[in-house]
Structure formats: C-alpha cells, structure tokens
Amino acid sequence: MKNKLIMISLLSILFSGCFPYIYYNRDKVLLKNVDIDQTLKIAEIELKSGAFGNILSLWAIRDQIITQKQAEAISILYFEYIDTLENEFGVWHLGWAISNMYREGDDSVKLALQKAYEDAQKRPEKLNQFASIADENINGDKIYMGDIHDLGKFYAKTHIVVPGNKDYLQSFEQYLADKEKKKNK
Q1: Contact 89, 53 (CB under 8 A)
Q2: What residues contact residue 168 under an 8 Å CB cut-off, 6+ apart?
Q3: Where along the chain do its domains lie?
Q4: 102-145: per-residue pLDDT in tens?
Q5: What is the CA radius of gyration of the chain?
Q6: Whole-prediction pTM value?
C-alpha cells in the first residue's frame, strides 16, 4: 500500500507540469563541497534496502562532478542492482543517473561508465509505463539536470553529503543517525 501511495504521489507530480528545479545548465546544479565518497556510502545502503526509490541517491548526484574512481564504484553499483529493481521508476531513474554522469563526465569518467551507459541506453525499450520519458532522459538530446520537483529536492537534501551547507547532510554519520531516529519512531 505504501509503494502504491508513493507511486500515485510521484505520478501526480509528473503530470502536474510542476518542475521548478529542472535545468539544462550544469553550473546551476553543482553543489559546492559535495562529498561524493560519503554520498556513495549512503547510495549503497539505500540500494541494499530494496525500498521503492532506493536508486535515488545515485540519481540525486547525477550532475555532480565525479572522479574516475567514483565512476568505477558507480558502475559496479549499477550492474549489481539494475536487474534487481522491481519497478520501472527505479530502472528509469538509475539509467538517467548513469546517462547524465557519462555525458557530463570527462574522458576518464566516460571510460569507467562506458558499459553501464551502453546498458542504460537500452533499458527504456524494455519499459512499458515510462518508456518514452525514460528514453528522453537517457537518450535524448537535452540533458535534464536538477532536483526536478520538491520531492526530488527534499530527497537530495536528506541523502547528499555537503559539509558546510546546512541545507544538506553534513556527514555519512548524520545520515546513519537520522536513519536510526526514523527507525525508532
């Protein structure tokens, strides 16, 4: 029931035409002092959870600058989890994340993500409900950047580590503490 409610909420946002945080200029979405390594630890925990939206930590950092080593770790996570995703939303967003990281990356990042990108490019054709929009986000001429909508922005702020920016997590430890608090409620 909870997953259905989440899906209905997301679909309502998608079709409301309300996308205040969508950009086509990377400078508008780069976070100063983002800690990709700590955020990747969060992404791995989220992916292991198997929960709806578990891929969103990777999606939320898709427009940030990453290193070759980080791209290698992301590629490993992609292949470890892409075929375990039980919903089209997850496949679409994880493919979108890989596509943006690849297309915005330098040559070393592209090399590290090449196989994941090639795989992600084929995923939309296997989708039913989200095939068209997934294809646009993954293979389209425009690179869709930003948090897109309020739920995306909220998720990003609670799953990306940006020390010194009070709107975001300050550390991986803060994420763990916040997760523990939610569990105990």
Answers
A1: yes
A2: 31, 156, 157, 160, 161, 162
A3: 21-184
A4: 999 999 999 999 999 999 999 999 999 999 999 999 999 999 99
A5: 15
A6: 0.89
